[in-house]
Write a structure and sequence with these properties.
Elements: H1 3-33, E1 41-43, E2 61-63, H2 66-91, H3 97-118, H4 132-162
Antiparallel strand pairs: 1-2
């Protein structure tokens, strides 16, 4: 493969990263605003003993799904992190660091996703849901891992030719 194909892979990896960022932002926003998907839930006051409510919470209680919040915030943070990494890749095509970080981070996310579906993890528990967005994002992250590893290998070969 030549330098042109490596540049195309660089742009593809960056584009996939920016696409996943958008997916994570939209999904995170939906989870934060959806009452049934880990968002804040309104709960009416104590119907058994209405006198038990205090002045601060007479109208409603708010229940926080901690696991859902942690998960949502984590993936929003990942979405934010992908943006500067993608830009770094495009601006500094000869720097291996963003590809190493992206390779390790994306591979870690894939492993974490598999673990969350097979092991009861602290805070988030055992997740049983596997949705279309989950599958698409993991395929895209697999493409990021493959593309990043390809670019890293190409850069090492180029370095070895120069020495």
């Amino acid at each position: 493969m030549n330098k042109r194909s490596t540049q195309i892979i660089i742009y593809l990896v960056a584009a996939i990263m920016l696409s996943i960022s958008a997916i994570y932002f939209v999904t995170g926003y939906q989870q934060l605003t959806d009452e049934s998907g880990g968002g804040f839930h309104e709960i009416s006051g104590n119907s058994e003993n209405p006198q038990a409510t205090t002045d601060l919470d007479k109208s409603q209680w708010i229940e926080i799904d901690l696991g859902g919040k942690v998960q949502t915030i984590f993936f929003l943070a990942v979405g934010v992190a992908y943006i500067p990494l993608g830009i770094w890749m495009i601006k500094n095509k000869n720097n291996k660091k963003p590809y190493i970080i992206t390779f390790a981070g994306s591979l870690s996310l894939i492993v974490l996703y598999i673990l969350s579906r097979t092991v009861d993890l602290p805070v988030v528990g055992l997740q049983g849901d596997v949705g279309t967005i989950d599958i698409v994002s993991k395929i895209m992250q697999g493409a990021i891992v493959a593309g990043s590893s390809y670019v890293i290998i190409r850069m090492r070969k180029m370095e070895n030719k120069l020495t």
